[in-house]
Amino acid sequence: MLRDARLILGKDLRIERRARVATNQVAPFAILVLVLFAFALDPDRGILERATAGLFWVAVLLSTVLAVQRAYALETTDGLADALRLSGIEPAAVFLGKTAALVLQLLALEAILLVGVAVLYTVDLSGPALLAVTCLAATLGLAAAGSLYGVLAAGLRVRETLLPLLLLPVVAPVLIGATRAFESALQGTPGEGWPWCGLLAIFAAIYVAFGMLAFGSLMEEL
Q1: Please, are residues 22 and 109 in contact by the beta-carbon 8 Å criterion?
Q2: CA distances from 29 to 34, 66, 70, 114 (A)
Q3: Could you give the C-alpha distances from 161 to 69, 106, 219, in angstroms and in order?
Q4: Which end of the chain lies in a sparser environment, N or C, as judged by fewer CB atoms within 10 Å?
Q5: Three-class SS of residue 157?
Q6: How far is the C-alpha of 112 from the C-alpha of 107, rounded, in Å?
């Protein structure tokens, strides 16, 4: 299974390297979101600093929706979904590979956004260990949920509008936990943020386990 998952991971990353959608579209969109918030809240720097964690994860969440739509739009063109089913690769391996590809892309995006937050919002990125673990756990949860609901929405005609409606309520706990953990790190009280990281890890494990079980039946609808 892990070997097949690496094949799917390599396929998605090669497609992204050639198309550069994350580099040319998703990353500029996320940075633009941060810039717009910076201009909107600039008159009151206190509000901007207090809202930094939430704004960061809102930008990540919106970018996740775009990345998931892109990842599964490829599978629904030119019979690629049929070829994937006939390849003999286990659906769980497909899920793990696509989730891993999304995780790597989102982590790279988050590194860029952290620099943008430090520059635009003039915040001190204290608690680097808590920030790193939060990004890893929250990104895994977002990617796993995105992969599961991405394949669900991909088989429908209204997938562009249905995916956000399906995904956003499910990842709301991840968004809340990541925001609280980030707030603790940025405020210099990392001890208060680690329990939120534990909650993020639990949700990530649930999403991954459920995705491995349900992905096969959902992939049949592609």
Answers
A1: yes
A2: 9, 10, 14, 15
A3: 10, 21, 19
A4: N
A5: coil
A6: 9
Radius of gyration of the chain (CA): 18
CA distance 128 to 61: 21
Report the half-sphere exposure of 140 (CA within 13 A, side-chain side): 19
Cα-flanking dihedrals φ and ψ of residue 38, to 5°? -65, -40
Q: Tell which residue, 199, 98, 81, 196, has the closest CA to residue 145.
A: 98
> What 3-state class would DSSP assign to 199?
helix
| Cα–Cα dist 29/125, whole Å | 22
pTM, rounded to two decimals = 0.90
- Give the C-alpha distances (Å, rounded to integers) separating 125 from 28, 139, 142, 152, 214: 22, 18, 22, 37, 38
Q: Per-residue DSSP letters for 111-165? A: HHHHHHHHHHS------HHHHHHHHHHHHHHHHHHHHHHHHHHHTSTTHHHHHHH
Residues in the chain: 222
Phi, psi of 31 (to 5 degrees): -65, -40
